[in-house]
Amino acid sequence: GESVGLHLPTLSVQEGDNSIINCAYSNSASDYFIWYKQESGKGPQFIIDIRSNMDKRQGQRVTVLLNKTVKHLSLQIAATQPGDSAVYFCAETFGNEKLTFGTGTRLTIIP
Amino acid sequence: NAGVTQTPKFRILKIGQSMTLQCTQDMNHNYMYWYRQDPGMGLKLIYYSVGAGITDKGEVPNGYNVSRSTTEDFPLRLELAAPSQTSVYFCASSSLTGRRGTGELFFGEGSRLTVL
Predict the structure, then answer these.
(1) Which of B97, B102, B106 to mutate to test the interface with A (most CBs of A within 10 A)?
(2) Which residues does chain A have within 8 Å of residue B104's beta carbon, measured at their own beta carbons?
(3) Looking at the partner chain, which of A42, A46, A103 has a beta carbon nearest the beta carbon of B103?
(4) Minimal-distance CA residue of chain B relative to A32
(5) Contact list, B108 vs chain A (CB under 8 Å)
């Protein structure tokens, strides 16, 4: 079956620096991608999404980049803050109602 | 609004026992989902529902059952608990997903289940 995977399970970043979290997907037919943030003991929260007809989308301090050629997705967080410490998941859908989640990357912000 | 509410938050079961995880949402969402999350892993879809009276299997449905008699409620039933079902269970809801809307699933706080 198809899968969504992450390159790095953990990432430590100095407070104030930018962070980049990567995600690889294997299904070239996937047409919609979402990043979620999960804080300790809580359910995941939606951060930002992007459709396959776009290469880049920006939100508040976050940017998602999609490279369909190499089936790669990344989440950039600018000027990281302590509250950004969490596990980040990418998810994809193939045009139906189900989302497939990746393993997740734990981001730790160093004061 | 309470959003998505799950009960119980914690439960310890013995092998072979049965239980139901409750999930209710007050956002009038059509789509509801049950995921399980094992330690250090992502979320795997157990069952989902696109509306009252309609349910469908996800990636890992074995050992579970669901029902959707109302828009608000989507309980998950474990009939014969096994140690492999030790996990954190998340219920989620959405108004629309995929092509027809956003992927914004609203998650509950999770139910931590241990089977001994």
Answers:
(1) B97
(2) 34, 46, 49
(3) A46
(4) B98
(5) 43
Mutation site, A89, A97, A98, A100, interface B, largest B CB count within 10 A: A97
In the beta sheet, which residues pair with residue B24? B5, B73
With contact defined as beta carbons under 8 Å apart, do B76 and B67 qualify? no
For chain B, first and last CA: distance in Å? 36
Close Cβ partners of B92 (under 8 Å, ≥ 6 residues apart): A43, B4, B32, B33, B34, B35, B105, B106, B107, B108
**Least confident residue range of A74-83, A85-94, B83-92:** A85-94
Provide, as residue numbers in chain A, all residues whose Cβ is less than 8 Å from the Cβ of B102.
46, 49
| All residues at 6 or more sequence positions from B114 whose CB lies less than 8 Å from its CB, including other chains | B11, B12, B13, B86
pLDDT at B97 over 60: no
Mean pLDDT of chain B: 90
Q: Is B69 exposed, middle or buried (0-12, 13-18, 19+ CB in 10 A)?
A: exposed
Cα separation, A83 vs A63, whole angstroms: 17
Nearest to A89 by CA among B10, B90, B4, B99: B90
| Residue B95: closest C-alpha in chain A | A97
- The DSSP annotation for A61-74 comes to SEEEEEETTTTEEE
